[in-house]
């Protein structure tokens, strides 16, 4: 992995890890639908203005359909599922479920023939999923209808994200990350906007709600997805989406620092295993010595 790719990867992990906290704030002020549709439209506007300010040429010759598919899945589907789930299952639980996205991406990529997962990558994904189990533990929560509905919603959002990322890497491979971000977020924002009729903004948002929405849309959506789609082109969908493993750890630490959540020794062990699995998926740690290191026979 090149230094630029690694820098983008770490930026995504931190930004998306902290985004769970901002989603809670924005959802309280604008509702779970408003938190998605308005966020997506703010992100679209911010990225488009930055492109114009830097005189970056934009090419949307791929047509409207691929952007609509990515917007419906990786943007609207994913964010609606997560935004709906967070108030029902909590920030940490939602972040942990989100870490399953690479598993779905691997399966979809394999079925489509987009990527061939090596044994090292497969071991990394298994380790990552095992670490998530340890990180979750067995939380003492009431498993009621709301909890099950929230968990299902988050899981469906993860599947949508994995589908959209693989679709983007296949159908929009020759399209720039700025165009993919603008097109997909505009489509996702417009597709989810009519849902405000059924789930209107619940209260009068306060100034801090607007500031959180702007920051969530500009920094944690617009700029992160520009880098994410560039990363998909550079290193592939599955390796890019493996960032969700690290996002889970960051989100859990945010929960400890800002929401008073506690992490046990077993959960810390799970976080370490997730990092190990992530490193294997990315190829940062070799599973065994390469053939080039073996001595040739005399």
In short:
This protein is mostly helical.
Detailed description of the structure:
The protein is an all-alpha fold and 298 residues long. It has one domain. 76% of the residues lie in helices and 0% in strands. It is built from eleven helices and no strands. It has helices at residues 3-53, 64-89, 91-98, 101-112, 119-136, 145-171, 177-192, 207-235, 237-241, 243-259, 265-282. α3 (91-98) runs antiparallel to α10 (243-259). 52% of the residues are buried. Residues 290-298 have low confidence and may be disordered.
**What is the chain-wise order of helices and strands?**
HHHHHHHHHHH
Average pLDDT confidence is 83
Report the sheet-strand fraction. under 5%
Helix content: over 70%
Number of domains: 1
Beta-strand segment tally: 0
User: What is the overall number of helices?
Assistant: 11
Distance between the termini: 35 Å
Residue runs with pLDDT of under 50 for 5 or more positions: 290-298
Strand-pairing-aware structural class: mainly alpha
The 3D shape can be described as globular
How many strands, what sense, and barrel or not for the largest sheet?
none
Cα gyration radius (Å): 19 Å
Topology:
Blueprint: H1 3-53, H2 64-89, H3 91-98, H4 101-112, H5 119-136, H6 145-171, H7 177-192, H8 207-235, H9 237-241, H10 243-259, H11 265-282
Any key phrases for this structure?
76% helix, 11 helices, single chain, 298 residues, mainly alpha, disordered C terminus
């Amino acid at each position: 992995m090149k230094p630029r790719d690694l820098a983008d990867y770490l930026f995504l992990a931190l930004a998306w890890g902290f985004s769970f906290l901002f989603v809670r704030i924005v959802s309280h002020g604008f509702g779970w639908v408003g938190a998605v549709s308005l966020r997506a439209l703010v992100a679209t506007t911010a990225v488009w203005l930055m492109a114009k300010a830097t005189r970056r040429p934009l090419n949307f010759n791929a047509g409207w359909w691929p952007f609509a598919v990515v917007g419906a899945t990786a943007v609207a589907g994913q964010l609606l599922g997560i935004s709906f789930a967070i108030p029902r299952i909590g920030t940490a639980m939602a972040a942990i479920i989100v870490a399953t996205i690479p598993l779905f991406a691997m399966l979809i990529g394999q079925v489509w023939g987009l990527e061939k997962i090596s044994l090292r990558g497969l071991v990394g994904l298994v380790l990552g999923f095992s670490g998530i189990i340890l990180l979750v533990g067995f939380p003492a929560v009431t498993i009621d209808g709301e909890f099950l509905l929230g968990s299902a919603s988050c899981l469906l959002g993860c599947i949508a994200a994995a589908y959209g990322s693989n679709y983007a890497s296949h159908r929009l491979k020759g399209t720039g990350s700025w165009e993919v971000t603008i097109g997909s977020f505009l489509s996702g924002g417009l597709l989810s906007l009519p849902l405000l009729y059924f789930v209107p903004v619940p209260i009068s948002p306060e100034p801090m709600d607007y500031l959180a929405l702007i920051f969530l849309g500009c920094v944690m959506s617009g700029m992160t997805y520009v880098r994410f789609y560039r990363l998909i082109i550079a290193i592939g969908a599955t390796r890019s989406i493996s960032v969700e493993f690290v996002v889970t750890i960051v989100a859990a630490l945010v929960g400890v620092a800002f929401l008073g959540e506690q992490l046990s020794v077993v959960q810390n062990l799970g976080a370490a295993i997730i990092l190990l699995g992530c490193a294997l998926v990315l190829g940062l740690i070799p599973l065994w010595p390469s053939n080039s290191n073996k001595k040739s026979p005399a």
